[in-house]
Predict the 3D structure of the following.
Amino acid sequence: MKPALVALMVCSSMLMFAADRKPTAAVLERWVGGKWPLEGKMLDTDYSKATSVTGVSTCAWSPDHIVIICDQSFVAEGKPDRALSVYVFDPKSETFHLFGLSPSGERPTTIDITISADGSHWEYNSQRENNGKRVMFRTINEFRTLDYIDWWSEYSTDGQHWTRMGGGTEKRQK
């Protein structure tokens, strides 16, 4: 057999294996270790105010490696705030979720997360009613490297046309 044909067969087999690979909680590991300083700018839209956003997240596995827990501090609209984010994987439905908790006692938020097979593209999706109209929100985290993320947030009222609300970067400090 020619080497090029063998290489093609091996690559094809690897792609088929990757396509069949089932998601696991292991992809959440990307957040573990070091601190993740965040910098960004929000835009003036129907669902966001123009402002700078800064913060830092520190994430770790729970003792039994069931969830990732992220302690977060940030400044938005000139006001400091804190939050706790809990990332989970549901093996039965093969889905990822984020639960957000605030010290203010607000109702916890639940956000579904879609993660690409290679773990580099994370899409956080939520929606709410506003004046009888459904509004969808998404934040995209694009891992450019294991230690660098570009992120942006958008909203849509039809699921087809998205309006940018803001964006920024996160770079892990080890």
About this structure: The radius of gyration is 19 Å.
